[in-house]
# Entry
Amino acid sequence: MRSMDSKVPAATNTLRMLRFLASRRGPVSAASIGVALDLPRSTVYHLLAVMIDEGFVTHLPEERIYGLGIAAFELSSAWVRHDPMARLGAPLLRALVDAVGENAHLALLHARDVVYVVEERAAGRPSLVTDVGVRIPAHLTASGRSMLADLPPAQVRALYPNRDAFSTRWEHTTITTPSRLRAELDRTRARGWAVEEGDVTPEFASVAVAAHDHRGLPVAGVALTFLSHRVDEERRRALVDELRRTADALSTRLHGSPRTT
# Structure
């Protein structure tokens, strides 16, 4: 029933709408929001307009649907500062590094960036740029691509609507448009894991697998980084097998289900 008994009905309904959008696997129509929350059409459109102006909602006009905006992603990621994911993931990454002898890190998606919340360095391996707290454009990283590939396509379009959404680190960066990103994410889904070669740091490569929550949505990327010339294809597949076990274990801790593929 409608929350019209609230002392601040607009605030209550705004929060209800944000919670509803967050519970969906992708953007939805205004009509769906109104039906699900039993709100008048005029109220839905008025509140959506305000949230679009403030960046909490993104409108995809061609499809007439609405999804969470960048401001909502930033707000939802604020809990990183209280490090629950770091506490859950750190022991798993330590075990991973002990097993494979390569540098590992855990990253979260924060709008169009990834934020590194855990890093475990293997003995004798070079230092990386992925210190805890560092932010890097998600589309450049294996951990970011692993999460983006498992987001609903409409949500990816909302995050990367045009060329202006893409930042680069080096002149040779190849993912600079929505179509190139879609192609890379298609390859990631077909392969079953994400990879990047020199997009973050020249001569280094990374492979990554996403961990999922109870909704089946990607909430973290687990990655291994190594010098490209030292790790052949057979070794990379062995690293991915270990990554999958680690990501599945983290998903279980998050009350999610391990991937079946």
About this structure: DSSP finds nine helices and eight strands in the chain. The chain has a mean pLDDT of 86. The CA atoms of residues 210 and 221 lie 4 Å apart. The radius of gyration is 19 Å.
